[in-house]
């Protein structure tokens, strides 16, 4: 199984978010500048209109000024351009401004009215306005003001235009980004699917390359070239090792045969014991060569095509029956606890070999009088087998190394063996796509074989660096 990437973590999604945020930011700045410039321009136009109207009113004959003010107010019933004439006591004389604005300086300059002006057509609602006031030669005060709500309306239009612009840009951008993202996501999934068998150790597989010749294809090509070189080097090393192991078996077998004949001729002589020791050493070397060739054979993944349904419980009972006499000779109680298990797709002979190696190691490293338990239970995803012993255990810093070829722990220097047993188990586990976990029990080691595929967060291979869960059966 492979972990699917989060769609929102893709480069396309990030670019969409970044460009969308930049568009909104710069669009807001642009609209703000446009609105500011527009407001300033319209304010200048209003100021010019007010100054021109004030100049016209100020040069009008004082005797006709009140009538002129009333006429100007009459032609503007909505109060857009308000005019008011007040005497020196601030009483209204003419126009449609009822009260003299207190905050408006009488300096003949245009100022914004702090409290606005009432609009007759809006139920006397006050609106923003700009105005100016001047004192005439006869002491009267002339006030002219203009409603500036038009500027606010233009600002609202500009802001709505920004909203529509953002909507009409972001929404198609998201849709387009979704469509653009689907292609790379599909290719990434294809690359992930192609890496699964490579991750499991099949270096003959290659990443798919499309006709686009884009960055992903270039990267896939680089990886394929690297895989080809790695496969070549691995095959050369494997071939050399296999050839050495295979070629040396013949002369060593001949040497052992000659030593055996020499031993027969020297029967009863003191030299016979020396010849016997030489034969023991040669047998150990031959056993290592056989184990090496066995590991190479198991690393051929084509054997997986011959898998069939296997009853794990039956295999465990065969292993228990096979090793029960050995445990009895060592005075070790050998417990078997098998629950009801579902069948698995596997090679029955290889499963027996793997479990036999694990049980054999547990019996070998458990001192006389110790205890070995073989248990099987059902997890949510499939069968689980636990081999628990009361031996010295495997240190945490050696649990990855013990599955390598020829590795022997510091606590087993005098124990007979080639250091290839767990390597064979490791190859069988990888071939089946299962997981072997090496942990510790209450008083020894616990080796757990999970007979199902790994979770995406777990690494393939033999030893998983996670805490060993307790089984539900009785404690060891």
Number of helices: 8
State Rg. Answer: 47 Å
Beta-strand residue fraction: 5-15%
**Computed structural class:** alpha+beta
What order do the strands of the largest sheet run in, or round the barrel if closed?
2-1-7-6-3
Number of strands: 14
The N- and C-terminal alpha carbons lie at a distance of 33 Å
Order of helices and strands: HHEEEEEEEHHHEHEEHEEHEE
Architecture per CATH nomenclature, i.e. the level-2 architecture of the largest domain: 2-Layer Sandwich
What does this structure look like?
The structure is a single chain. This protein has 476 residues and is of the alpha+beta class. The protein folds into three domains: 1-199, Beta-Lactamase; 215-298, Orthogonal Bundle (Helix Hairpins); 305-450, Heat Shock Protein 90, CATH 3.30.565. It is built from eight helices and 14 strands. The strands form four sheets. A five-stranded antiparallel sheet has the order 2-1-7-6-3. It has a five-stranded mixed sheet with strand order 9-11-12-14-13, covered by helices on one side. Helix 7 packs antiparallel against helix 8 (421-432). The longest helix is centred in the middle third of the chain and has 51 residues, at 149-199. It is rod-shaped and about 160 Å long. Residues 413-417 and 459-476 have low confidence and may be disordered.
């Amino acid at each position: 199984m492979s972990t699917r990437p989060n769609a929102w973590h893709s480069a396309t999604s990030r670019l969409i978010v970044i460009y969308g945020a930049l568009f909104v930011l710069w669009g807001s700045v642009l609209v703000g500048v446009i609105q500011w410039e527009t407001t300033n321009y319209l304010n200048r136009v209003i100021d010019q209109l007010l100054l021109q109207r004030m100049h016209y009113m100020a040069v009008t004959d004082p005797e006709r000024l009140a009538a002129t003010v009333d006429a100007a107010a009459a032609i503007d019933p909505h109060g857009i351009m308000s005019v008011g004439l007040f005497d020196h006591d601030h009483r209204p004389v003419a126009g449609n401004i009822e009260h003299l604005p207190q905050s408006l300086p009488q300096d003949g300059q245009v100022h914004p009215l702090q409290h606005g002006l009432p609009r007759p057509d809006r139920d006397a609602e006050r609106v923003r306005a700009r105005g100016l006031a001047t004192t005439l030669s006869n002491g009267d005060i002339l006030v002219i003001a203009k409603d500036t709500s038009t500027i606010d309306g233009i600002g609202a239009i500009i802001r709505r235009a920004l909203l529509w612009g953002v909507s009409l840009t972001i929404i198609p951008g998201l849709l387009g980004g979704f469509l653009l993202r689907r292609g790379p996501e599909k290719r990434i999934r294809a690359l992930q699917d192609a890496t699964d068998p490579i991750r499991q150790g099949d270096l003959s597989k290659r990443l798919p390359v499309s006709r686009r010749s884009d960055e992903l294809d270039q990267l896939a090509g680089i990886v394929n070239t690297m895989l080809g070189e790695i496969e070549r080097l691995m095959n050369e090393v494997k071939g050399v090792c296999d050839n050495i192991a295979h070629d040396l078996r013949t002369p060593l077998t001949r040497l052992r045969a000659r030593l055996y004949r020499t031993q027969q001729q020297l029967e009863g002589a003191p030299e016979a014991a020396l010849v016997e020791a030489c034969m023991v050493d040669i047998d150990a070397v031959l056993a290592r060569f056989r184990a090496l060739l066995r590991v190479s054979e198991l690393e051929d993944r084509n054997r997986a095509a011959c898998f069939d349904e296997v009853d794990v419980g039956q295999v465990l009972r065969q292993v228990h029956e096979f090793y029960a006499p050995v445990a009895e000779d060592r005075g070790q109680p050998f417990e078997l606890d098998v629950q009801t298990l579902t069948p698995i797709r596997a090679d029955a002979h290889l499963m027996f070999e793997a479990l036999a190696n694990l049980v054999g190691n547990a019996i070998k490293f458990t001192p006389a009088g110790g205890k070995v338990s073989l248990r099987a239970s059902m997890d949510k995803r499939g069968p689980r087998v636990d081999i628990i012993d009361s031996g010295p255990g495997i240190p945490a810093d050696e649990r990855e190394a013990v599955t390598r070829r020829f590795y022997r722990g510091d606590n087993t220097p005098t124990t007979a063996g080639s250091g290839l047993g767990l390597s064979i188990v490791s190859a069988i586990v990888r071939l089946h796509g299962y997981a072997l976990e090496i942990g510790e029990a209450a008083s020894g080691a616990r080796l757990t074989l999970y007979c199902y595929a790994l979770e995406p967060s777990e690494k393939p291979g033999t030893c998983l660096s996670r805490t060993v869960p307790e089984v539900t059966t009785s404690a060891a």
